[in-house]
Amino acid sequence: MPLGFAAITERAPVIAYLGLGANLDDPRRQLSEALERLNAAEEVEVTRVSTFYRNPPLGPANQPWYVNAAARVRTRLGPEELLRLLQQVETALGRVRGERWGPRRLDLDLLLYNGEVIFAPDLVVPHPEMHRRGFVLVPLAEIAPQAWHPVLGKSAGDLLSELNPADRAAVQPVAAA
């Protein structure tokens, strides 16, 4: 999946954390395929993946429950380049952008990038809602409890411990297939 960016390999590798979610068309398969495609991309290595978790939808209640996970990647891509790759993978796996918080085949979010704070027209990092979402914090804290939120000045583990207990309890490991 070439991106066509010049001089990417001149960058030192950085660590980024991704949120993954799906609730249509075999969500576990969607997440697994997305991880395989990301790992196959040049300049990206998936180094850690959380358990897959099941949780109720954030948006309209008349949709299937979600399967969510978090992944740690090592990459030489800049944040905007990584975002474009995530969007390419979403599109390749059939994502159609529609209703906000509606059902989807795949949703890939850039949660944290190298401890940086980024405010770009199409990208805000840290993800602006991650600290309020159990389906993000439970898997993230599983693989990287020390991952630092540079705006709030707290680790993923600390943010999870501060989350409403009902929001934590709603996120349950997916039973093995």
Please give a structural write-up:
The chain has 177 residues and is α+β, with helices and mostly antiparallel strands. It has one domain: 7,8-Dihydro-6-hydroxymethylpterin-pyrophosphokinase HPPK (Alpha-Beta Plaits, 2-Layer Sandwich), CATH 3.30.70. Helices cover 28% and strands 27% of the residues. The protein is built from five helices and ten strands, in the order βαβββαβββαββααβ. It has helices spanning 27-40, 79-92, 134-143, 156-162, 165-169; strands at 14-22, 44-49, 53-55, 66-75, 107-113, 118-120, 123-125, 148-149, 154-155, 172-173. The strands form three sheets. Strands 1, 2, 3, 4, 5 and 10 form a six-stranded antiparallel sheet that branches. β8 (148-149) and β9 (154-155) form a beta hairpin. α3 (134-143) packs across α4. The two termini are 30 Å apart. The model has no long low-confidence stretch (mean pLDDT 90).
Characterize the overall form.
globular
Q: Give the strand content.
A: 25-35%
- Total domain units: 1
Helix amount, in percent? Answer: 25-40%
User: How confident is the prediction overall: mean pLDDT?
Assistant: 90
Largest sheet: 6 strands, antiparallel
How many strand units? 10
SSE topology string: EHEEEHEEEHEEHHE
Radius of gyration: 15 Å
Strand and helix layout:
Blueprint: E1 14-22, H1 27-40, E2 44-49, E3 53-55, E4 66-75, H2 79-92, E5 107-113, E6 118-120, E7 123-125, H3 134-143, E8 148-149, E9 154-155, H4 156-162, H5 165-169, E10 172-173
Antiparallel strand pairs: 1-4, 1-5, 2-4, 3-4, 3-10, 6-7, 8-9
